């Protein structure tokens, strides 16, 4: 009986995910699961002034500079893989076995999009387990351009600042379509920890990562986006 109940729960979850992805294949995303998580967390902590800044924009209205910056930094094999970069996973495992300087992740843009949109943040096996099939369904139903578009719109770039449009207007007083290479690289340099690392108060580590991203952007070239 218990096993059947679990099977029913799992089936309902993935049916709901699949239906959600079909709906949002073309429709702008009104909010993400992570936005809801952050709002609730702040309310529970007594912060009733916490506000989410979020403005959806289409990929055509997002500068190619930040499209290339996020691929250069987060997932250079994004156009090629089917949701998971197994080479990056192997490198991360080898690094984590040898290093005491922190854990290196290997999540692709597709995985991060699935997590931010439908799941929750936190290091636990349940979330990781759900992330795998959610990512597979995402890759099955959406194009690479759509995945990148949604990722750039729901990624967090500061406390309550979600998406490149809100981030661009907050930090640079301009639309995301007008971001320069330096500005794009700086925004991406604070990922995936925009609460610890600040766009408006970049540390030496953030500046070094920004410079590295700019070099990677130069290596890939804007024509790399044509592969999406």
UniProtKB/TrEMBL annotation:
The gene is mtgA. Peptidoglycan polymerase that catalyzes glycan chain elongation from lipid-linked precursors. Pathway: Cell wall biogenesis; peptidoglycan biosynthesis. It is an enzyme of class 2 (transferase). Belongs to the glycosyltransferase 51 family. Signal peptide: none annotated. The chain crosses the membrane at residues 6-27. Its EC number is 2.4.99.28. It is a single-pass membrane protein. Pfam families: Transgly. Residues 50-217 form the Glycosyl transferase family domain. This is Biosynthetic peptidoglycan transglycosylase. The keyword tRNA-binding does not apply. NCBIfam families: mono_pep_trsgly (TIGR02070). Keywords: Cell inner membrane, Cell membrane, Cell shape, Cell wall biogenesis/degradation, Glycosyltransferase, Membrane, Peptidoglycan synthesis, Transferase, Transmembrane, Transmembrane helix. GO terms for molecular function: pentosyltransferase activity; peptidoglycan glycosyltransferase activity. It catalyses: [GlcNAc-(1->4)-Mur2Ac(oyl-L-Ala-gamma-D-Glu-L-Lys-D-Ala-D-Ala)](n)-di-trans,octa-cis-undecaprenyl diphosphate + beta-D-GlcNAc-(1->4)-Mur2Ac(oyl-L-Ala-gamma-D-Glu-L-Lys-D-Ala-D-Ala)-di-trans,octa-cis-undecaprenyl diphosphate = [GlcNAc-(1->4)-Mur2Ac(oyl-L-Ala-gamma-D-Glu-L-Lys-D-Ala-D-Ala)](n+1)-di-trans,octa-cis-undecaprenyl diphosphate + di-trans,octa-cis-undecaprenyl diphosphate + H(+).
């Amino acid at each position: 009986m218990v096993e059947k109940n679990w099977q029913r729960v799992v089936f309902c979850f993935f049916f709901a995910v699949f239906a959600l992805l079909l709906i949002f294949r073309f429709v702008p995303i009104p909010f993400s699961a992570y936005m809801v998580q952050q709002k609730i967390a702040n309310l529970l902590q007594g912060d009733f002034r916490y506000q989410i800044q979020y403005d959806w924009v289409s990929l055509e209205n997002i500068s190619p500079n930040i499209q290339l910056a996020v691929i250069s930094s987060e997932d250079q094999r994004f156009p090629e893989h089917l949701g998971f970069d197994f080479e990056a996973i192997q490198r991360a495992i080898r690094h984590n076995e040898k290093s005491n300087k922190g854990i290196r992740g290997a999540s692709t843009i597709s995985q991060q999009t699935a997590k931010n949109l439908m799941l929750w943040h936190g290091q636990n096996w349940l979330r990781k387990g759900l992330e795998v099939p959610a990512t597979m369904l995402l890759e099955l139903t959406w194009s690479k351009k759509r995945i990148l578009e949604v990722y750039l719109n729901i990624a967090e770039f500061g406390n309550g600042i979600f998406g490149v449009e809100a981030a661009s207007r907050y930090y640079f007083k301009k639309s995301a379509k007008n971001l320069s290479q330096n500005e794009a690289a700086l925004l991406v340099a604070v990922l995936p920890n925009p609460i610890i690392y600040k766009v408006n108060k970049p540390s030496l580590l953030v500046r070094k990562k920004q410079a590295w991203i700019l070099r990677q952007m130069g290596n890939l070239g804007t024509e790399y986006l044509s592969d999406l």
